[in-house]
Each structure stands twice: as C-alpha cells, then as structure tokens.
C-alpha cells in the first residue's frame, strides 16, 4: 500500500511544481445556452400566395461550451443540438448532436498567434464574414488563422482547404452541396485603430476557390472569386457613422466573369450622448449591384458568408433567401430607424425599409416594397433575456416576379424568443 502512495505522489510532483510556478495562470470556463424561439410565418423569407395558410413552429438551440485558457494557449469546444420541437421521436437512438466549435489558439509571444480548427469568422460589421447567431445553428468554418495583434493594429491571414472525406486516390473534386460552400479560401484582414482620432478602418481581401469540375467524372476544376474592400467607422459625441465598399472580380461557380460591387453608409445619433443614451436615431443605405443579363460579365454582388439578417430587413427576403431562378436584380435598401431605451433592462427598435432593385428589369418598376420591423428586448434576470418581434411587408408587382407570391396578400411575421445563457463554472488555478 505504501508503494502505491509513493507512486501516486511521484506522478503528482510535476504538476504540483508547475502549479507553484504559474500562479493561477490556468482558467477553465463552462457555459450552457438554451434558446427556444416560437415563430409565426405568414410571408417570411418568401412572399405567400393568396389563400396559403400561415405556418408556426418552435425551434431550439441547446449548446454546451467549454473553454480553457493560459498565457500561451487557449482552447474551446462547443457542442449543440438544434432543431424544431417535436421533430425527433421520444426514443431516439440517432440524436443530432454536433460539434459547432472546436479550436485551439497558440500564442507565440510578441503579439503573434495561430488559431486552428472549427471556428466562427466574424469581422467588422459581419457584412462579408459573420457568425449568423440569429440562425438556430450559427455559421462556422474549418480554418487556420494566423495573426498579429497590438492595441492599434490587427492582421489576420485565414486559410481553409475543404474535402468531403478522406481519400486515397482520385484527385480533389469537392461536392459543396451539404458541406462547406467553398473548396478553399485565403483571406487577409487588417484593422487599424487610432489613439488620436475617432476613426477606425479595416481592409479585407478574400480569394475564394469554388469547385466547377465534372460531377460525373469527378474531374476537379477550381475557379477563383476575389472580394476586396474596406470598412470605416467614426464614433464621437453621440455620432456613430460607418461605411463599407467591396468589389468582386474573378469567376463564379457558373464559370462567368464577375464584376460586381456593394456600398453601404449608416449614420446614427444617440442622445443624450454624454449619459446612457435614451434614444438612437439611425438612417442607412445599402446598394448591392445586380445582373441584368445585357453584359458579358456577371454583375450581381455575392454577399458570401455574412450575417444578412441584421441588414436587409428582419423578414429575410433578401440574401438570407434566394430570388427566383433566372433573377439576380441586386438591391437598393433605404432604412430609417429608432431605438428607445426604456430602462436598464428594456429597449426596443422600430425600423422602416424601402427596397428596390439595383437594375431595371424589362417592363417592371424598380420598387420592390416596404417593410416595418419592431423588436423589444427585456433582460428578465442575469443571463436570461426575453425578445419578441413583429414585421410586415407590403410588396409590389416586381416583388411577385423576382421573389414569387402575391403582393396583394397580407405578409407578416412574428416571433418570441428566450435566451438563457449562464456561465455555470469558472475555475482558476
């Protein structure tokens, strides 16, 4: 018995010595999220036709996240089950429980790091790369991120190479349907923050490899689409101004030459700005080029992997859902909004959007319609937030042509969601 005790002590000595020298350098955090959302859909995502009945359901996200951190290493593992209440049987032997995040970050000192694995890519205002947290599943990438960061500069190089399975021979033909939507990706992002002016600026360049080979013969052929642009912000004395411009070139998955762009500008003012603001007034405009078919180049901008729900109307008619086949008219979105902070626990938003196509379609007006979105948020208690929203869309004949449905039918959408997300464990040693 004494031999066993001495053996256990010898095994523990290295860890004990390490603990004494690091002085509580290690941290471990565990959090749990339960987020059900009940939705009433009577024209959300796609306009409905006259006589079509509304839909209703409750979706749910159940997520468990664990994170470990020390000075030179950080790791995160997060698993989730997502779905609709009732879609799984009571006795289920094949439950859908997936790893939505699994990455490690190595800090090399002198502000350099490498992060590899399944991770969220969220940059700037999430217009091109975003986490899409509104979606019950979120959005994640399998990638290697190499970076440098100091108080004023951040530089990231993101590299990804995707395949459907382990193979011995046969090349690298990639089936994007049901998998990551690109074959490979190289992205360079730089952000500058000034200590002396209220301006911040980011630059982004993405080279996206898309599989365009022959599915029958598995012959691989990769086409490359480039997206480049900038995002600039100004924040001072209650003013919050941001603007973005991105240009696309190269070839798309239909092997068409691309020349497309998008531009956005948002101006918001909070008052009283020197206290906790009670009111925020915002005006914005987004222009995304479209394709009219009268050019040898494809001119519809691809919004790629951003969080589109936060920009182009809460009913997700644009870019979160597709136009009808054969149409890619782009979008010109003008918005006026108002946010009211009723208390430390309650705030609400009211936004009006007017949508039109970016290109003129034969025999049709550009106007697509108008949308009104209302949302209220209530912090019920620590780590528990209740939110609800209601939206209506009044479309036009042009909306019927490019999206479907009947603009004379009433189109609305409502939802209620509760987000319970406590940190249940924090250990430092």
From TrEMBL:
Record keywords: Signal
Protein's UniProt name: Alginate export domain-containing protein
SUPFAM superfamilies: Porins (SSF56935)
Alginate export domain boundaries: 29-356
Signal peptide (from-to): 1-19
Taxonomy, superkingdom: Bacteria
One Pfam family of this chain: Alginate_exp
């Amino acid at each position: 018995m004494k031999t066993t005790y001495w053996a256990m002590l010898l095994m523990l000595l290295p860890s004990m010595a390490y603990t004494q020298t690091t002085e509580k350098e290690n941290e471990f955090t565990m959090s749990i999220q339960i987020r059900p959302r009940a939705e009433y859909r009577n024209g959300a995502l796609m306009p409905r036709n006259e006589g079509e009945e509304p839909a209703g359901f409750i979706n749910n996200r159940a997520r468990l996240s664990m994170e470990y951190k020390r000075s030179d290493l950080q790791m995160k593992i997060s698993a989730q089950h997502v779905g609709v209440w009732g879609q799984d049987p009571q006795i289920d032997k094949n439950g859908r429980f997936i790893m939505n995040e699994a990455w490690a970050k190595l800090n090399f000192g002198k502000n350099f790091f490498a992060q590899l694995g399944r991770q969220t890519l969220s940059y700037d205002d999430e217009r091109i790369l975003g986490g899409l947290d509104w979606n019950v599943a979120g959005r994640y990438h399998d990638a290697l991120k190499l970076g440098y960061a100091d108080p004023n500069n951040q530089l990231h190089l993101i590299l990804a190479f995707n395949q459907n399975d382990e193979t011995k021979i046969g090349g690298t033909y990639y089936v994007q349907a049901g998998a990551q939507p690109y074959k490979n990706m190289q992205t360079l992002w730089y952000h500058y923050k000034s200590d002396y002016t209220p301006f911040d600026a980011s630059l982004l360049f993405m080279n996206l490899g898309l599989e365009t080979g022959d599915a029958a013969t598995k012959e691989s052929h990769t086409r490359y689409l480039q997206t480049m642009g900038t995002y600039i912000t100004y924040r001072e004395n209650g003013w919050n101004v941001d603007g973005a411009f991105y240009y696309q070139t190269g070839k798309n998955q239909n092997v068409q030459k691309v020349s497309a762009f998008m531009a956005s500008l948002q101006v918001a003012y909070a008052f009283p700005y020197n206290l906790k603001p009670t009111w925020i007034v915002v005006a914005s405009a987004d222009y995304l080029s479209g394709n009219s078919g009268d050019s040898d180049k494809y001119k519809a901008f691809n919004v790629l992997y951003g969080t589109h729900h936060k920009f182009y109307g809460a009913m997700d008619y644009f870019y979160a859902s597709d136009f009808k086949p054969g149409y890619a008219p782009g979008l010109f979105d003008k918005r006026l909004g108002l946010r009211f902070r009723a208390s430390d626990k309650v705030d609400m938003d009211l936004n009006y959007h007017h949508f039109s196509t970016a290109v003129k379609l034969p025999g049709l007006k550009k106007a697509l319609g108008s949308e009104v979105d209302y949302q209220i948020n209530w912090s019920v208690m620590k780590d528990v937030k209740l939110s609800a929203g209601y939206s209506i869309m009044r479309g036009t004949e042009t909306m019927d042509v490019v999206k479907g449905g009947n603009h004379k039918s009433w189109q609305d959408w409502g939802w209620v969601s509760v987000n319970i997300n406590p940190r249940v464990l924090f250990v430092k040693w």
